Amino acid sequence: MSTSSETINSATSTIKRDKIKEAVIEIVSDSGEGAQKCGQSLGTISAKMGNGVWTVEIIPAEIRPPARSKAGASGIRVRMGSNKITNMGDHADMVVALNEQVLYGRIDQNAYKPGTYLLIENKWATHTEETKVAYEQSLLKFKELGYIIHEIPMEKECLKYVSDARKGKNMWVLGLLCNVYDRDLTIAAEQVKSIFSKKSDEVIQSNLDLLHAGYKWANENLSMHFTIPSKPSEGEYVVMNGNEAVSLGVMAAGIELCSMYPITPATSASHALAETIESAGGIIHQAEDEIAAIGFAIGASYAGKTAVTITSGPGIALKTEFIGLAVMAEIPLVIIDVQRGGPSTGLPTKVEQGDLLSVLYGAAGDAPKIILAPATIEECFHYVILARKLAESFRSPVFVLTNANLATGVQPFPRPNIKSAWFSDPIDQSKWKEGVKAYDWDPQTGLSKRPIPGQKGGMYTLTGLAHDEESHVAYDPAINQRAAESRSRKLAALKQTLKEPIINGDQSGDLLLVGWGSTKGAIEEAVERAREKGAKVSSLHIHFMSPMEPGLKPIFDKFKKVMTVEINYSDTIGNPLITKENRRYAQLAWYLRAETLTDIDCFSNVYGQPLSPIKILQMLEKTLDLNLIE
Amino acid sequence: MITLKPDFCDIEPLDGHLLSTDDYASSEARWCSGCGAHTILHSVQKLCSDEQLPPEKTVFVSGIGCSSRFPHYMKTYGFHGLHGRAFPVASGVKFRRPDLNVFVITGDGDCCSIGAGHWVHAIRYNMKMVVLLFDNSIYGLTKKQTSPTSPIGTVSNTHPTGSVLPPINPIQATLGLPNVSFVAQTVDWKLAHLEATLKKAFDHPGLAFVRIVQRCPVWMRDTYEPTVKDPNAITVLHHDEGIVLGEDALKKFRHVKDHDPADIVKAREVAELVKTTTPIGLFYQNKNASRYDEYGAHNLGISVEDRIDAINSHMDKYAI
Ligand code: SF4
């Protein structure tokens, strides 16, 4: 193989390449054609070359939506550049479409702009008359919209190497894109080998052949060639998606049990775990339902084992009663909520930040708990470890709120150096100190040490009923008040250890954007672009949602206007019946208004899409009445 | 005195002090006087003392209801959780702590209604634990509502003209499930039989499901009193491999039926008898059913170095 790639490489050297800072590429197809594998590979190859990368999956709601339909667009967006990339970017520069109909869905979502290259399968000529007509109309429409169209004989070329083109196009396209964007073919070949490492030698070989064929074809037939300079990264890097990062975080936290029930988009985290957790000292338990999943984890935690449950919004709804019990009985537990669109079963595969208020307040009665929101893939890893430590120290359930965007987005980050200090301490089974009660609440902090079955002298009966320090059912009217104060005080104790959030931009100005979770990269990029145009805008990002990070009110006071940017629902003033008085706010805005008594505005929507910098810039133009976009 | 099998749990030396039933008693039980739960509590305390179970290594997990107050009356570890959810919690306790003796205390509403899904799966998981279903056929704690095991015609606050649905037979239901390994029935007022059943259940290497027909003199006196008083109402299942009673104890029963607990088909037939009599004894036992807690224990105690190696080699897959 190496000989053929050298020949091709020498051929490429004669090609004139345009140097570009970054590119946004989409690969779209019907489900099952491997577009995502193609894009992930392109992302990984680019990360390996030292480029910044962010990938976002484009997922249809159904497992097998009708082929050649607008609803069926499945695929992936890869944004790669010379510098660090923190979000999916604005419009795509190039799209490879394995059929033309799926593009309509993306065009509706404003994913492309005039001048975008559309590379489309050209097999249409052999189709039925009806399809042909539809195809011709599509092409006409695309031309009108200003896209630059290239028809590509993908299927025909692939059939030279495989009998089923559906199983080969993705690697052929990968080769094509490697040529167009000057990707290192040796790294690409290694990537292909690693994807198919579990398959036979013949399968590996035919995919390598496809890769090289696509590369060669692009070299000989396409006119656009680019190069994206990269800086080979210093130190070791890893590249993965948020769910994979969560799964590694679970193991690095020394968690001994992951108890779950399958739910999109959380399940793939347990798939990643399933491969390794047993050799890392843990086990996955697939429970009979969401309720049992958390009950099982709580049982294990009560018995001194470290446990996590991973789910999404509808699962959280079912788990709520047990979450209340964990708060009441002060059981350490990590709960990972990979948020998706809601309410109800909502948008299973689409992004939303809609669970903040329900995890904060969605229990019976007052149930204070710790809530963290990682903003990057790297933080998905480290926050699980942090969550585990906090859970044990504060005898509390700790939420980690990620979302579908983080779950499936791929980003490189410095390889964590796994430390034994991250692991949870082994359970203490020494004799319980005489006289110490099961809930020996410290009057200052509300904290207490917990006895574990096996510990002599510590015997107590945990209960979800109001209880006194000895865990006896409370019959004294004062005890419920005292116990509730102690449980709440833990948050105040934790808050004392937190730092103020860092402001991105000036410390004062016309507008402060406040975000949380996965939108950080898009918000910061939009703010930077707006600032270059002279806007007095800054942003800050909150990672500790409960207890809330300190110092917000004085920061807010230095800005003329404060506004949250979120992916969840809020009313738009001016829509029928909606006024400033009756408007329903986005979740963080609602919460911050209560926390800081500041008149906080919000920008939010529920298109099920990650936020792009351009959307935020458009909002900034309106809000600040400035011209920010060329 | 110590009759535990050595592989069941690590036993620490008891410093020459033998634990009596009082050593397992916590606060005074707050059930109504005459409630069958009192007898069961004493029998369980007796079992603990007979087996010399280390209190710190013994966990009683319950749901919600009259019966589920049980853990509060034991001087062991206890978990009094949510309505219907004792099984997942107990399973979570046992899965990675094989050294603990786990008991599940549940009631007819708790197990057969709100927690029925978990009941089915707990049987399938077959972890080593003793499950005591206190079946009084009524919701007692919430003051008399129909339960899933109430006989047709039960007058309750939710069915003032009498309940209309046929009751669930927990024995039949359990015997119909995959991987079922131990099913027995007893009554709270036949002490010798109750104690012998608890002992047999405790010795079983898997999930031992015991339905205890329990008197609730406050809400269900009319239902149970005839059974308690009528010597013909109970049929004892008799077999050398079953619940073995002494000759004197056996003589007290008028109706004795031979039943081999190895035979599940017969066991299901005997469970049908419930309609006409109360069969007590061991319906079915299979000591070789597969146990999920054995799987849960298989990788305990992996060294920190090995864990780090495993994570690092997994991380290698993502390295660039
Ligand atoms: S209500 Fe019935 S079951 Fe409940 S404690 Fe009283 S007698 Fe026992």
Summarize the structure.
The complex is a heterodimer of chains A (630) and B (320). Chain A has 20 helices and 23 strands.
Please write out the topology.
The complex is a heterodimer of chains A (630) and B (320).
Chain A lengths: L1 H11 L5 E2 L2 E8 L5 H14 L3 E7 L15 E8 L10 E6 L3 H8 L3 E10 L7 H16 L3 E5 L1 H5 L10 H12 L4 H11 L5 H21 L4 E2 L9 E5 H11 L4 E4 L6 H10 L6 E4 L3 H13 L4 E5 L1 H17 L3 E7 L16 H6 L8 E3 L4 H17 L3 E7 H5 L1 E5 L46 E3 L13 H19 L7 E2 L4 E8 L3 H13 L4 E6 L1 E3 L5 H6 L1 E8 L20 H10 L4 E4 L8 H12 L6
Parallel strand pairs in A: 1-8, 2-5, 5-6, 6-7, 10-11, 10-12, 12-13, 13-15, 14-15, 19-20, 19-22, 22-23
Antiparallel strand pairs in A: 2-4, 3-4, 9-16, 14-21, 18-20
Chain B lengths: L35 H16 L6 E5 L14 E4 L5 H11 L4 E7 H7 L1 H10 L3 E7 L2 E2 L5 E2 L23 H6 L6 E6 L3 H13 L3 E7 L7 H9 L4 E5 L8 H5 L3 E4 L5 H9 L5 E8 L6 H5 L7 H13 L4
Parallel strand pairs in B: 1-2, 1-3, 3-4, 4-8, 7-8, 9-10, 9-11
Antiparallel strand pairs in B: 5-6, 7-11
The complex binds iron/sulfur cluster.
Describe it for me?
Chain B: Keywords: Oxidoreductase. Chain B: One of its GO terms (biological process) is cellular respiration. Chain B: InterPro entries: 2-oxoacid:Fd_oxidoreductase, PFO_beta_C, THDP-binding, TPP_enzyme_TPP-bd. Chain B: It holds the Pfam family TPP_enzyme_C. Chain B: One of its GO terms (molecular function) is oxidoreductase activity, acting on the aldehyde or oxo group of donors, iron-sulfur protein as acceptor. The complex is a heterodimer of chains A (630) and B (320). Chain A is an alpha/beta fold. Chain A has four domains: 226 residues, 3-Layer(aba) Sandwich (Pyruvate-ferredoxin Oxidoreductase, domain 3); 185 residues, Rossmann fold (3-Layer(aba) Sandwich); 69 residues, no CATH class; 122 residues, Rossmann fold (3-Layer(aba) Sandwich), CATH 3.40.50. Helices cover 38% and strands 19% of the residues of chain A. Chain A has 20 helices and 23 strands. Chain A has a seven-stranded mixed β-sheet, with helices on both faces. In chain A, helix 19 links the parallel strand 22 and strand 23. The two termini of chain A are 46 Å apart. The N terminus of chain A is likely disordered. In chain B, the strands form two sheets. Chain B has a nine-stranded mixed β-sheet with strand order 2-1-3-4-8-7-11-9-10, sandwiched between helices. In chain B, strands 5-6 form a two-stranded antiparallel sheet. In chain B, helix 2 runs parallel beside helix 4 and helix 3 crosses helix 4. Chain B is an alpha/beta fold and 320 residues long. In chain B, 52% of the residues are buried. Chain B has one domain: Thiamin diphosphate (ThDP)-binding fold, Pyr/PP domains (Rossmann fold, 3-Layer(aba) Sandwich). Chain B is globular and about 75 Å long. The N and C termini of chain B lie far apart (62 Å). The interface between A and B is large, with 71 and 57 residues. The structure holds iron/sulfur cluster (SF4). The site of iron/sulfur cluster has 11 residues of chain B, from loops.
